Amino acid sequence: MNKGHKETISIRFISTAFMVLAIAIFKPFGLEVWQWEAYVHLLAIFALGLSSCMLTEIILRYLIRMPRSYDRGVNYIISRNLRFQCINTPLVSLLICLYRHFAMSELVEGNKLSLSNYLETLAIIAFLSFAIGLYWRFKFRSRYLAAELEETKLLNEQLKKLQASGMVSGSMSQNSGPELQDSGSKFLDMQITLEGTTNEHVSLQIADLLYIEAVGNYVKVVSKRDEELQTNMLRATMKQMEEALQAYAMIVRCHRAFMINLGQVEQISSNSRAMQLIMRHSHDAIPVSRSHVHKLKELLY
Known about the structure:
Largest sheet: 5 strands, antiparallel
Order of helices and strands: HHHHHHEEEEEHEEEEEH
Structural class: alpha+beta
Low-confidence stretches: 169-186
Strand order of the largest sheet: 5-4-3-7-6
Mean pLDDT: 85
Strand content: 15-25%
Helix content: 40-55%
């Protein structure tokens, strides 16, 4: 058994013990009417809780394809823990509810299987699960921070490599012909004209585009010319801008209100709450929505 498996079992064992301890203290499910048998019931609940945790781990690993790992970044860790709780909480509640019905209903009529019985059990286990989650989040905070810093460092390294190779700053889309992809540096100087729904338009070199932001019925085009920032407003939608720039692989949508030029990203800043792209020249912090984080990572990796 490797270190990761031992740690997983240890965490689930401690979490289940915490749950049983809380149940022993507050005595729900009519435990107060039992005498020495209460300890037997608590031991059985402990076994059910631990079994549920192991079953949830199997579901996550083999069905959802999310093995336990600290090498995939803090967002992966948080997402996995959240899914674990979402699966394990109703599952262990169901097991305890069934146990109450078959083993604890002799002296307590309220333990009979029913919807209210299950909802009561679910509410108790959900509260305990939330408390346990907070404990482990605090316990592993330093590990989360280390994973977060490592992931951000890796993303920035990949970004610099792509920018240095010209794959970001000068390439066309994968659908472009090989002769265009082989001469990607030519597109650094390529002039493009972005048009609005009225007569306004803006012409710029594709490499000089920093980002495009949706502002009401307009889009704000931020670019540089001779190291000076320029801002132009066009009456257009982000969808129109996407269609106009879809041939350029380095221009990507990172948010419902933002498109950015990866070649003009100075730094990626990330934490457990959000990811931001710090742009060159303007030093604006462009948000990356959760729905676009995975796509951005795929482009960089």
